[in-house]
Amino acid sequence: MATRLKEVDAVMVGMGWTGAIMARELTKAGLKVVGLERGQDRTPGEDFTLPGVRDEMKYSQRLELMMDNSTDTITFRNAPAEMALPIRRISAFLPGEGVGGSGIHWGALHWRNLPSDFRIRSHIQQRYGANAIPDDMTITDWPVSYDELETHYDRFDKLCGVSGQAGNINGKLMPGGNPFEGPRSAEYPNGPIKSALPAQMFGAAAKSLGYHPFPAPVAIASEAYTNVEASRLAPANTAAIAIAWPARPTPRHPPTRH
Questions:
Q1: What pLDDT, in 10s, does the model give residues 59-90?
Q2: CB count, 10 Å around CB of 1?
């Protein structure tokens, strides 16, 4: 017999970054919220401490943090006319499982979309001509712009304590940062994490060739940090990644996070 639970105002299906942030905003507005997530709860003090966190068999081979697609499968098809078949083993696409979702195994590289990404159809046509996009290609502009989303980008930076070096603040280029990023309203909440020797050597070599190396933005606190929700984040000791860009803007985008 079904059990009738107390009614709530909203149910969040999935408690990763999106679900958790939405649930928090709704509760601050006075609503009662229930979050649903497959898999177990995870706490850093119990699940991600040394030496267990270095268990490569558990995490890298058996994919402990990922959805078990042999029992909780999804289907896929390449075209509408095909029959969707179950995927028994996933390669690059690895949905997380447990409270926190894919944020648990996120590599924390923290790129923003470029302003041109939000108007990709218009951008391509302006740059390469009206016939550059085939008639049957459904590529289109977003209904929102980078400028409209920038305040939300900034809030998320402050929520997860992003470390980095801004390259463009309100249209002013900043030394040491990414000169091709969209304008930011503020600097990163934390300065760049420390660079290991290989990253320093890479940056020096790139700079000598006329490129603009800069520390990649990462959602890892470079120092003790208290975020906008009063959660305390401990400093990390992870070495920064150096990224180099050409001396002149080129029609390519920053690396995507995997």
A1: 888 888 888 877 778 888 988 899 999 887 77
A2: 3
